[in-house]
Design goal:
DUF34/NIF3_sf; elongated; metal ion binding; seven-stranded mixed β-sheet; 34% helix; metal-binding; Udp-n-acetylmuramoylalanyl-d-glutamate--2,6- Diaminopimelate Ligase, Chain: A, domain 1; GTP cyclohydrolase 1 type 2; binds zinc ion; DUF34/NIF3; alpha/beta
Length: 269
């Protein structure tokens, strides 16, 4: 499947079946969902058929992802950004109606994991982004230890080198607030948190970071970075959160012998 912005990026073919409720229990335990106070329900958000042979994963349960899943004959969809966020309009109208209708008509389950997927020590977004970018974690910071802290592996002598590496590995030009010539020694402290984590810059500074990476950036973040002398690299919300759900999908496929497709719906933010 490849239609411009939509691409199927990974596929594991197998022929076994897992029961929906069994998978839900497995993931509740694997991701320790009861430990998190989150902005959305973690687990099965929409119930489809009980037998799962084909799983489609993606970052966000957008209409485009659901349509791709229908085309791939998915029994279930696994995402990082699901539905029913705290404070949202509860009515089933407009965008929400179209999404839910497509899921329900096709009897496809929606599994969504937000903070538990950010935080998993191996399969999570922060862990997987560290692997992709060559970041070596050794500490945590911020509320609920959501931020990760560590060093950059060898090969990025300056901030500019690190930005170039991010561009090459994420396929996206990051926004760098700082001096590209700034040296990054082997012991330089780097903080990171995937997604919309611009509000954690202050915590990263307090924790001793010299460089902070996240997905999004806001107007005030730029001033805090400049005035603190701590560099900020905004790498893209979607781009930094492509890896956790993919790793979790692969893990499920290996565990239960089912077919898994990761579908990337491009998002420039
Ligand atoms: Zn996110």
């Amino acid at each position: 499947m490849s239609k411009g912005l939509i691409s199927e990026q990974g596929k594991q073919q197998a022929d076994r079946i897992v029961d929906r409720d069994h998978l839900s229990e497995f993931l509740a335990s694997e991701l320790q969902i009861s430990r998190f106070r989150d902005y959305c329900p973690n687990g099965v958000q929409v119930e489809g058929r009980s037998e799962i042979k084909v799983l489609v994963s993606g970052v966000t349960a957008s209409l485009a992802l659901l349509q791709a899943a229908v085309e791939l004959q998915a029994d279930a969809i696994l995402v990082h950004h699901g539905y029913f966020w705290r404070g949202e309009d509860m009515r089933v109208i407009g965008q929400k109606q179209r999404r839910l209708k497509l899921l329900l008509e096709n009897d496809i389950s929606l599994f969504a994991y937000h903070l538990p997927l950010d935080m998993h020590p191996q399969l999570g977004n922060n862990a997987q982004l560290a692997d992709v970018l060559g970041l070596v974690p050794d500490a945590r910071f911020g509320d609920d230890d959501l931020g990760w802290l560590g060093t950059v592996d060898t090969g990025a002598a300056t901030l500019g080198d690190l930005a170039a590496r991010i561009e090459q590995r994420l396929g996206r030009v990051p926004l760098l607030i700082g001096d590209p010539a700034q040296k990054l020694g082997a012991s330089a402290r780097v903080g990171w948190c995937t997604g919309a984590a611009q509000n954690m810059l202050g915590d990263a500074i307090a924790a001793g970071a010299r460089v902070y990476l996240s997905g999004e950036i806001s107007e005030p973040t730029v001033h805090l970075a400049r005035e603190s002398g701590v560099a900020y690299i905004a790498c893209g919300h979607h781009a930094t959160e492509r890896y956790g759900v993919q790793a979790l999908g692969r893990h499920i496929a290996q565990q239960f012998g089912i077919t898994h497709h990761f579908v990337d719906i491009d998002n420039p933010v």
